[in-house]
């Protein structure tokens, strides 16, 4: 007998029943119906599904005899071949016998599900998975074997600083990082360094397990379950070969386990992809990156000397050359010595040419290929190895792929099976997590390079293997491998073997098939690194075909979303191509600008937003070549600015200059403690020429015809004027600021040129906003005086006052300087309290609006005022079309209406005659003033307004929300008529204005609104809230039965998603419980989900009879989906049912049929506190099943009742602490177990639950010291 966790048992059953149809059918036969089984989705594959299911069974879901039931069900099911292994083809009944022993929660599981350790008996031997993680000493044993060609027997040399750094990262006393990335080319010694550090860490800190993930292991839930609860140091080699999903699981484990450090080795080419996974796991700030550079010659010589010391002497010239090659690739030195001693490599001058490294690796690959059984010739094995290297990693069970390889290798399929097995046994071919590849990776590189190029020429192998395998599942792996080997060959002036393959790839890709494009771009990251020009060319074609979509998109714009998905993949690849080949910058900027102009998504919330790619990755000033890149960006902006902006543009091309006018910035830098944002100052001297060119460009745009570009130019000049930002971790001195004095004066000169040329008040106001701070607070006296001079000049334009009033943002620190001369000799620097204080802002605003209103009436008639306001608002809308761009428009209109009420009709008529525009958003102010001043004329005008142009209709409908129906009965009649027969687009606003009617006649108004409820859910919700003075719970209590029922029916039509509506429904439930319960069920069935109703359990507490009747009806109804029943019950009863709910439940338990009782308990599972809080309910259930003859139904009811003792979930807790949900359940259960007033059976029930809870808490609080 051996005790196995659920994961082990699940692995066996997942192999026998890997599909949802067979698996769910078997478990249904065990007694767990499908509605209670875990959901089967792409995110929960077969093994994970079986683990969750076995845990449910072990927790008592179907009773204690579940193992025998499972064995019987498996044996009775038709034979199911194991996935991917023909050797496991016997039936489940022949192989599996299961019996439960002791059930307890396994250690280290804070997953929130009920777990069990199960005794597992096998009629035949059940294959055990080898451990996924081995202690470092055990893992190193094979690498230290004396007969190993590739070994770690030699002393680690030349890596002392990296070793110290890695040991610092692993030190449990200090602040340990969570992730250490060790990067470098193949054969550079990444694994050797990591293993040495891990070995020393294990010796130094034996209390911290030092583990290595085995290359053949699958990084799944079973593997993760092996990890200790506490701190550990874990090495994963060649992490780029692991799937992102598995890597993310491991990263999540490390993140939630304090003290755990992951060491991940990866090739530099895959660094970006691994970084992305670390970023997605939220570990950006908890990582260190150690990049292995070449060994110095002294260290390489020390390595070679040690390698050759223990054995027959080798020629000096061979040893010398070996040291030089070992600088770049220590693995070559290790392998060469071993091969030379075995007479597999001749240590003679013939080998000592530029291809020495290749000769060594070729000999190694020949040695590998020679490890095949007798009867299989080595050329066949070599051909197989070539093709495997070309497509790796590939799917292990892709039989079609193996057939094609057999054809290419000119060998019978059975020979390939033999070769595959031999390579697996020799650990040359690694098969893990459904994938296969060759190791060591550097040998795979050499095998593929030798196959692709012969004598410095393309052998045709690449095109041949591509055409043969391009239709297989490994096509994109093949493209990536061929692209990479071509890049490696080019580094040594080898042939371009990828060109014909790429031409064929491009010919096969249908750029109009966005699904295919998505599949290709998903795997194209490596191409951006090794074939940037070719990938960029393809992206260029793709982006030329895709019309940029304006973002954000509408909810149902599916076609545009397909385009958006392709763009989201292509855009970051552009930046990667530029990083690999900076010469592509100009073309990338063209595409990124076109996309940025119409991308209205929030920039700072979208990591790969085109704006961020340009300003944060491609044009920053913190890297070599940044000045050249900046010049390119300026040239592109000059070219873009020569063209008009698209009509739907949300910004202008000037955005690309944003990072180039800053005086300080933040750079992403890799430090010992992880990724950090490193602040840096920009040199004025280094950027003087660039800024001069930018100023010239901004003056041109600032004095040009485009108002939006003019304002953006002003904003950029304002940004250029800002002092260097002092980020955390840096100090900006006065000298740093004053070093920019001449540049700042030149910037103010450029702004003065724009001001002198400006005829638009909005431009002058924008300039003033950008300059005013510097006019009083700049550190430089010269800058302060120049800025104050410009402000004074700008304030000498009284025609700008209207624009200032509409913008509604007066400068509270520097009031108008109109008529005030600039002091001679300069101005003293002011503190932040200069001028009007912040608390006086609203007084200043009111004065400004009143003054401007008076001036407008003095200068214009009503039509002139409206014309002037319309023109100003349209100008503002051009620059800032976002909502509330003119917050001063509403109060200014109010002042205009108050100043001359007799002209209100004239103002309204003038506005009505305009075309739709931004003034319409504020037109309701004029209509409201007219309605209150002269209801007779306005009542005649309303019907015309409601049938006018779009903006007028919207303004008139909005006016009803201001209480017009209470002003005049004629207004109410017009409103009702418009609701019934008017424009559906206006119904929301018209309905929102029915609050007075709802207060006065709720039943009648509700019936009226019911006819338009589907068109006006928002408006009716607003009206109900206003009717109840925004306390719908109290208002609901004042309604009589007729009104309450009418309002309930109305809420059913608009839905109960709004929490205020839920409070109203709960209030009505106190008066009409049966009707509310009926409405709740109907809504749940209609939406296929149970609506939430805040406060409903408390509201129904005094109505147990109605609850019981509802529960009986519910248990007789076949509800779909299966989640609806428990959702409805939870909404009505709550997680901890009330006294009234307990009475109802006991009544149902005592009177319902057993079938209905079983269904009731299924629905009660989410009521987490029911069993521990309501022992009378437990007693009633136990008495009921105790009085009935034992059947499957009584067993199910008993199992479900016991399952309810366990919390449905529990939260993660700190090591050594139990989750609070478990502690609470244990305390309540213990109290019930001691209650002498309870029946003996009930006390025993709680005692059994207490044992499970104590075991679960013990498992949760166990630490590494307890092992």
UniProtKB/TrEMBL annotation:
Residues 8-80 form the Effector-associated domain. Residues 155-252 form the Orc1-like AAA ATPase domain. This is AAA ATPase domain-containing protein.
